[in-house]
Design goal:
Structural class: mainly alpha
Mean pLDDT: 82
Number of helices: 10
Largest sheet: none
Strand content: under 5%
Radius of gyration: 19 Å
Shape: globular
Distance between the termini: 45 Å
Number of domains: 1
Helix content: over 70%
Low-confidence stretches: 1-7, 9-14, 16-28
């Protein structure tokens, strides 16, 4: 159970996280101009290039990586890491493929705001906020799978901005998704190595609280930026 002192610290630092989120500059990651031209001009199956593009997009997708960082923050066993990463991969693969191949369009700003919300959600989960506020602990696996669906929609909206040639579309989108998984594995490898070294430091327990408050602030910054973009485009 979270201590009363811990709850007091959370109550005091939450307004700070909101303030930092409101003031922090954030830019939505997208597809580089040169990559965008290639995507629109690609004709036929281009397995290798689309694998590369998927891996590059995931490895530079800081909103996805922030969420995964939060998910893995207090997970120590590789077996558990594999379970959570698989759930996330299943979720975002399903909606990425469905969103692009079905032609289903969703507002990119709103989806990316939900991705920011996923970062806030996980940071609060790591802080034990739900037990303090509501007396319950949401199922973390269900949360990762659910938010994985939104992350996949976010990836789909990036591709839906372009006129994708019908020739080889299925193969290219599958290749892009494979690349996303490769990029995710590479990024996770770096995160886990860094986390393992950090956890060995005696200061980790003390720094964990502040780190998750900063993670929450980053999530609020993403939400604020995306909602601002949504209102300005209307």
């Amino acid at each position: 159970m979270v201590s009363f002192e811990f709850a007091q610290r959370l109550r005091l630092l939450l307004p700070l996280a909101l303030w930092l989120g409101a003031r922090s500059p954030a830019w939505a990651h997208g597809v580089a101009e040169g990559d965008a031209r290639f995507i629109e001009q690609a004709s036929g199956a281009q397995w290798g290039p689309f694998v590369y593009l998927g891996a590059k997009h995931m490895a530079t997708g800081y909103d996805h990586l922030l969420f995964l960082f939060g998910v893995l923050f207090f997970i120590y066993r590789m077996k558990d890491v594999a379970v959570y990463v698989t759930l996330f991969a299943v979720g975002h693969s399903a909606t990425l493929l469905y969103g692009v191949l079905s032609g289903t369009h969703v507002d990119a700003y709103l989806v990316d705001a939900l991705i920011g919300l996923s970062v806030v959600y996980k940071a609060l989960d790591n802080l034990g906020a739900y037990k303090v506020w509501f007396g319950i602990q949401p199922n973390p696996k269900a949360a990762v799978l659910t938010f994985g669906l939104f992350h996949g929609l976010g990836l789909a909206t990036k591709l839906q901005d372009f006129r994708l040639p019908a020739d080889g579309l299925v193969t290219n989108i599958l290749a892009f998704n494979v690349g996303v998984e490769i990029g995710q594995i590479l990024a996770l490898g770096a995160i886990l190595i860094a986390m393992d070294a950090w956890r060995r430091d005696h200061a980790f327990a003390r720094q964990a609280f502040a780190s998750n408050v900063l993670l929450m602030a980053a999530g609020f910054a993403l939400i604020g930026y995306q909602l601002t973009g949504f209102m300005l485009k209307s």
